[in-house]
């Protein structure tokens, strides 16, 4: 087994908390047989366990793709550690209704991505590939080939392409497919420690992509995704959260369900604190009718189910100062006022929902705040009409 | 009934009624609970209201003390109190109104300056109490204090009237208030 | 303004319960008071309401407060303390109640005092125990002290002097003994070469020189080392028998001068 693969496996396993170790390793499957031998791991120190596992992986000649699979499983368990962007794809009207073939999707996604990346790297910046530059193309490839063939590994052209990117798939719940892409360059192996994740639900126009620093690779990813899923356009929505399941619920309008169990009990407690009317007969609520009204309006807007989890909403305002009273410096400004308002909370929608019932804001709330799930966005730009 | 008057009804037998006015229901509710837990010879009744005027279609006992709760973290809460004050008869301010400012403990969260509330209380010649209602122990001691005030205001303490108490509190409570 | 002062006194209502005869009288009294209150209430309800704004509140409230306080003052001055009707039975029942209350209070005080007493007793016992322990410690310390006192012996100078003298004497004797033993040993094992040996006779020159014993050589070396420590070297004279010099040098008892091979010294064993 390659040394880098061993290191990759080791680092991935070290990330896993001991409590989840068995579950994740079993989901991995690659080492299921081996793990039967060693049922109790709880008492052992993690380091020794990791050491043993790496040795076993070496024995079994694990490949990068096996390790990448383990990384996907880990990320599936810890999906809230990433920030997810929502992308929406569209088809041109009149297109045929295709039957979705997962196998075909995977192979064509991989192929298109590799090709796109190769083109992008061989012709970087604005220089578009032209037919007469084939020679230079050849030249580059040849040079690359020479570099690689001098290396310690035997290699051919297909290996060169593999070199640029490594793509791993894993089928997940509800037909979803998780795609892990580790990016490389023509001179370097794919960096396994800064991968991009894509979660795609087949036969829907939505994909969720984990935010990464490699901004330049996102268009390529979009291109591969669009073509492989037989769509025509892809647009990044202004919608982003740590909670993949919540994003999914909003996008697919699957509200009536429970959301990620992370701290799920707190909003309920808050509600019971403020809103339940005390049974003590000596306490009389004077504004009971008003309270009921607020409750009703809130329920109309937000529904009576627990809200999907979002952490923030951002509003970019570009507006003129309006006031009849004091004609100050602001009133005479011709340029618009620009400001950014950011709402953040561990559970933003739940917080917004409890604003009016807690008496902090008037009911109904501004539609700007309540439209987040309906509009499927939490980044807004607001301008004067 | 739009304007709340202190002596619009005969008192109930051995009953003392307090009206808590404030936007934040949860805080008022907790304060009310703490007050009812206090040991007290009179029958306590706690009315909670978001704002004044109170709805006119219900009968309620005579209100002996109104406490306006201002959350220093929320300008809305201050505005609400200022609005509500317009629906209170002047006679109430003869010792039967108190202001309670909460949230001063977390200075960074404050959007209402303490002096603003102090000036408001000063303008209405009424005592201003500070208490972080979110802290259990503070709330309990504040509840205790309010219960004592209420008993005086309801006339259940022989020899001390509400006005009497007010003039006593005024001198000790905010000695610096005059300077504002 | 005095309405609140005339509120029904809770004591008067509870006081009624026990008394049957005085009950009616009291109820009548209460009803009169209630009627007074209703009258006042009627008058009050005629007074219009007045609301304030923040800007005008201060002055009008101050005026109102002043008026009210004056009214209250005059009320207090006018008022004679109201006495409950002096019905004997009523007084008895009130007194009883008062006594019962007092008894209850006193009982409370009693139990508190008792528990306090108990606690004090416990404290006392503990303190006593502690004191005993301390005393025991003190006693044993005293015993130790006196024991140590007995052991003290007056140290006399002459005694020490004598002791040292005897020690010195002993050591000197021991030294003599050692020296004696050494000289005997040397005499026995390292004698001077026999002059009667025939080989030596041939060398006439040599026979004229008086050789000294190993004992004497060592003595010279030792004396030199201690008399002139800065220059302990001794010149090898003809009276030193060369084989003995060789012996001393070989065994590291003597050392040759690094520059002058004709001089030797004794190894500094004493340093």
UniProtKB/TrEMBL annotation, chain A:
Localization annotation: Chromosome, Centromere; Nucleus
Coarse class of the protein's main subcellular location: nucleus
Sorted UniProt keywords: Centromere, Chromosome, Nucleus
Superkingdom of the source species: Eukaryota
GO biological process: CENP-A containing chromatin assembly; chromosome segregation
Keyword flag Secreted: no
Pfam family, one: CENP-N
InterPro entries: CENP-NAC/CAD_complex, Chl4/mis15/CENP-N
Any one of the GO CC terms: nucleoplasm
Family: Belongs to the CENP-N/CHL4 family.
Protein name: Centromere protein N
Species of provenance: Phyllostomus discolor (pale spear-nosed bat)
Gene behind the chain: CENPN
UniProtKB/TrEMBL annotation, chain B:
Compartment(s) of residence: Chromosome, Centromere, Kinetochore; Cytoplasm; Nucleus
Main localization (coarse): nucleus
TM stretches of this protein: none
GO cellular component, one term: cytoplasm
Domain of life: Eukaryota
Keyword set, alphabetical order: Centromere, Chromosome, Cytoplasm, Kinetochore, Nucleus
Pfam families, A to Z: CENP-M
Keyword Nucleus: yes
Subunit organization: Component of the CENPA-NAC complex, at least composed of CENPA, CENPC, CENPH, CENPM, CENPN, CENPT and CENPU. The CENPA-NAC complex interacts with the CENPA-CAD complex, composed of CENPI, CENPK, CENPL, CENPO, CENPP, CENPQ, CENPR and CENPS.
Its biological purpose: Component of the CENPA-NAC (nucleosome-associated) complex, a complex that plays a central role in assembly of kinetochore proteins, mitotic progression and chromosome segregation. The CENPA-NAC complex recruits the CENPA-CAD (nucleosome distal) complex and may be involved in incorporation of newly synthesized CENPA into centromeres.
Name of the molecule in the record: Centromere protein M
Organism from which the protein derives: Phyllostomus discolor
Taxonomic lineage: Eukaryota, Metazoa, Chordata, Craniata, Vertebrata
TrEMBL record, chain C:
Main localization category: nucleus
Cell compartments where the protein resides: Chromosome, Centromere; Nucleus
Taxonomy, superkingdom: Eukaryota
Any one GO biological process: kinetochore assembly
A Pfam match: CENP-K
Residue ranges the record marks as coiled coil: 103-151
Keyword annotations from UniProtKB, A to Z: Centromere, Chromosome, Coiled coil, Nucleus
Family: Belongs to the CENP-K/MCM22 family.
Protein name: Centromere protein K
Species the sequence originates in: Phyllostomus discolor
Gene (name only): CENPK
């Amino acid at each position: 087994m390659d040394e880098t693969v061993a290191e990759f496996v080791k680092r991935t396993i070290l990330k896993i908390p001991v409590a989840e170790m068995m579950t994740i390793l079993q989901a991995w499957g690659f080492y299921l047989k081996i793990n039967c031998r060693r049922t109790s791991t709880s008492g052992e120190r993690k380091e020794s366990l990791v050491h043993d596992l790496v040795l076993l992986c070496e024995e079994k000649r694990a490949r990068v793709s096996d390790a990448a699979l383990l990384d996907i499983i880990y990320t599936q368990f810890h999906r809230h550690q990433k920030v997810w962007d929502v992308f929406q794809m569209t088809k041109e009207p009149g297109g045929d209704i295709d039957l979705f073939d997962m196998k075909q999707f995977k192979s064509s996604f991989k192929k298109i991505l590799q090709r796109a990346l190769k083109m992008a790297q061989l012709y970087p910046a604005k220089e578009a590939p032209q037919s007469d530059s084939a020679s230079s193309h050849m030249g580059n490839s040849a040079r690359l080939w020479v570099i690689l063939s001098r290396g310690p590994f035997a290699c051919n052209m297909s290996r060169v392409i593999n070199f640029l990117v490594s793509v791993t798939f894993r089928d997940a719940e509800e037909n979803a497919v998780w795609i892990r892409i580790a990016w490389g360059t023509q001179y370097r192996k794919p960096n396994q420690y800064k991968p991009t994740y894509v979660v795609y639900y087949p036969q829907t126009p939505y994909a969720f992509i984990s935010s990464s620093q490699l901004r330049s690779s996102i268009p390529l990813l979009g291109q591969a995704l669009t073509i492989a899923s037989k769509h025509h356009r892809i647009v990044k929505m202004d919608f982003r959260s740590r909670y993949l399941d919540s994003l999914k619920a909003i996008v697919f309008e699957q509200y009536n369900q429970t959301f990620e169990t992370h701290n799920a009990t707190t909003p309920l407690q808050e509600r019971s604190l403020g809103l339940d009317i005390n049974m003590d007969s000596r306490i009389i609520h004077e504004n009971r009718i008003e309270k009921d009204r607020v409750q009703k309006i809130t329920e109309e807007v937000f529904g009576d189910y627990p809200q999907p989890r979002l952490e923030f909403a951002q509003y970019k305002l570009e507006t003129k100062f309006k006031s009849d009273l004091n004609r100050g410096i602001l009133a005479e400004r011709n340029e618009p006022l620009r400001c950014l308002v950011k709402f953040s909370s561990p559970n933003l929608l739940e917080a917004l929902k409890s604003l009016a019932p807690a008496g902090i804001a008037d009911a109904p709330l501004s539609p700007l705040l309540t439209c987040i799930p309906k509009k499927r966005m939490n980044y807004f730009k607001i301008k004067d009409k | 009934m739009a304007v709340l008057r202190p002596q619009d009804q005969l008192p109930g037998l051995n009953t003392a009624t307090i009206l808590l006015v404030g936007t934040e229901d949860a805080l008022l509710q907790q304060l009310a609970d703490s007050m009812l837990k206090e040991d007290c010879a009179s029958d306590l009744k706690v009315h909670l209201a978001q704002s004044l005027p109170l709805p006119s279609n219900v009968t309620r006992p005579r209100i002996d003390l109104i406490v306006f709760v201002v959350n220093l973290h929320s300008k809305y809460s201050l505005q609400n109190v200022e609005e509500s004050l317009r629906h209170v008869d002047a006679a109430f301010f003869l010792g039967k109104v108190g202001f309670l400012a909460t949230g001063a403990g977390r200075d960074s969260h404050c959007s209402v300056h303490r002096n603003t509330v102090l000036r408001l209380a000063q303008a209405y010649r009424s005592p201003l109490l500070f208490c972080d209602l979110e802290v259990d122990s503070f709330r309990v001691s504040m509840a205790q204090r309010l219960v004592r005030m209420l008993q005086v205001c309801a006339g259940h303490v022989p020899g001390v009237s509400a006005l009497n108490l007010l003039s006593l509190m005024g001198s000790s409570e905010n000695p610096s208030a005059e300077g504002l | 303004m005095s309405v609140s002062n005339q509120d029904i006194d809770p004591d008067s209502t509870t006081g009624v319960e026990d008394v049957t005869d005085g009950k009616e009288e009291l109820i009548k009294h209460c009803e009169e008071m209630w009627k007074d209150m209703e009258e006042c209430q009627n008058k009050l309800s005629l007074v219009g309401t007045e609301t304030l704004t923040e800007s005008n509140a201060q002055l009008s409230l101050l005026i109102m407060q002043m008026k009210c306080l004056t009214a209250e003052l005059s009320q207090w001055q006018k008022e004679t303390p109201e006495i409950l009707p002096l019905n004997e039975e009523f007084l008895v029942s009130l007194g009883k109640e008062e006594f019962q209350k007092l008894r209850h209070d006193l009982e409370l005080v009693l139990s508190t005092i008792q528990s306090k007493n108990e606690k004090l007793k416990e404290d006392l016992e503990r303190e006593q125990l502690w004191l005993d322990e301390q005393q025991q410690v003190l006693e044993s310390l005293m015993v130790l002290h006196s024991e140590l006192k007995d052991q003290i012996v007056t140290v006399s100078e002459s005694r020490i002097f004598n002791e040292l003298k005897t020690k010195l004497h002993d050591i000197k004797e021991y030294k003599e003994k050692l020296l004696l033993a050494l000289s005997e040993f040397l005499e026995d094992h390292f004698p001077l070469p026999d002059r009667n040996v025939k080989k030596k006779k041939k060398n006439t020159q040599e026979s004229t020189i008086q050789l000294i014993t190993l004992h004497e050589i060592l003595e010279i070396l030792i004396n030199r080392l201690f008399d002139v420590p800065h220059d302990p070297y001794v010149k090898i004279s003809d009276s030193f028998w060369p084989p003995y010099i060789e012996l001393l040098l070989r065994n590291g008892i003597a050392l040759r001068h690094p520059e002058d091979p004709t001089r030797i010294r004794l190894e500094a064993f004493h340093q």
